[in-house]
Each structure stands twice: as C-alpha cells, then as structure tokens.
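Section 3.1: Structural characterization of target chains.
Under the original work plan, the team committed to producing a structural model for every single-chain target entering the pipeline before any wet-lab resources were allocated. The record below documents one such target. The sequence was received from the expression subgroup and is listed exactly as submitted; it comprises 249 residues.
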Amino acid sequence: MPRPLIAAVLTAATLAAPAQALDLEAMTDAERAAFRAEVRAYLMENPEIIMEAVQVLEERQAQAQVQQDLDLVQVNAADIFDDGFSWVGGNPEGDITLVEFLDYRCGYCKRAHEDVTRLIEEDGNIRYIVKEFPILGPESVLASRFALSVRAVAGDEAYHDTLDALMTFQGNIGQASLRRLAEGLGLDADAVLAGMDSDAISEAIAETRALAQRLQITGTPTFVLEDQMLRGYVPFEQMEIMVADARDD
C-alpha cells in the first residue's frame, strides 16, 4: 500500500475509533481485535473517507513543500539571483526574475525552452538567469562546458545563440559535433574547445551543483520565479499566469 494511503487509513481509523479506545498500547488483545473489527466495518461502510483523508494528506504535504521551498529560496537568495557568474538574459532590468536550472540533454528542458523564450520575448520585462546544471551524464557535462567556454571566448550574445542551438540539437554530443556547432555559429572552434576544461568553468558547474543540492533540486528543468520554486516542466500558459501573480504579490 502506498505510504500516503497508509497514513490516510490511519487517519480515518483514528476518526472512526471511540475516544476511550485510542490508546492502542493499553488495549487488551480482545479490545484490540474489537477495535480493528470496528474500524474495518466503518471503512467498508464509508470507503469514501479514505479518499477524503488521502486528499487532506496530499494538501498538507503540498503546503509543507511550498513553505519549505520558500524558506530554501530565501536562505539561498544571493546565490540564486546574483552569483556573479551565471548568464543573465531577457531584460536585465526586469521587474521579475526567472531562474532556470537546465540540462541540454533533458527532453523536458528542450520542451520548456520554446515556452520560456516566448514568455521572455512577449513579456519584455523578465530578467532571466540560466544555471548550468548537467546531471544526465558525460554528454550533458560536455554541453555545459562548451556553452560556458563559448561565453568566455565570445561573450554573452554568443552564449545565448549557443543555448538556443544546444536546446534544438539532436544527436550525440562529442568533440566533433561541438566543433561543427561552433563553426556553424561562426565561432573560433579551436579556442572554444580548448577552453572547455578551464578551472573557472569547473568551479561554476561545481558551485551550481552545490546550490542545487542546498535547494534539494534533483531534476531539470527547475525554475525559481521570485520566491517560488517550480519543479519540472511548466506550460507557457501556466507560467504566464504565475508571472502575473508574482507581480501582484
């Protein structure tokens, strides 16, 4: 039985039990058997109470998760919004900040990229920060190192173009494919590839991973919208509503 359902059944059982019989440790074997029979009979006659209890439990857990995320964002705000090395796009002076932890090999990140790009372009007043968070294997790490090296060699605009290119890239990521990608973007491929193993890039990725660990982020994409944590893919329409709500707060 799933843990939420077990907890819900226990909640329902407690509600169904007579007040004088709630101390299970103090019961005799006969009293315990009678209690179990009474609870079972009650639940069989009122099975809907189990689903009601599950719903209450899930709502409480969701509320607890939201509060925990709010606390995590507050404690780590400086590293989330102003770490000094993450790329800042969109409108750097925007009134709303959207942070994305992403992995170029993540299918949901690729799916979200089009929505995020549209949101930023149509809104025009969103500050967008990218956190390179490669967690899906060696090819993910190569892709992030490549993007960060592009930025170091050719600047922020080239990084933005590379972000777009990597998010739409299909196929295996390796030295040869990255060289072709760099050349296709008109970059100095030799310089970009040579810079991928720099200490600065290693430190940036390590710091982002440490931040993600503190925020209890285990998957991509994960967004931070002002003080909210959005874990997983969020469709354009929903994100648009959340941005409007964040402005109203």
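The chain has a mean pLDDT of 89.
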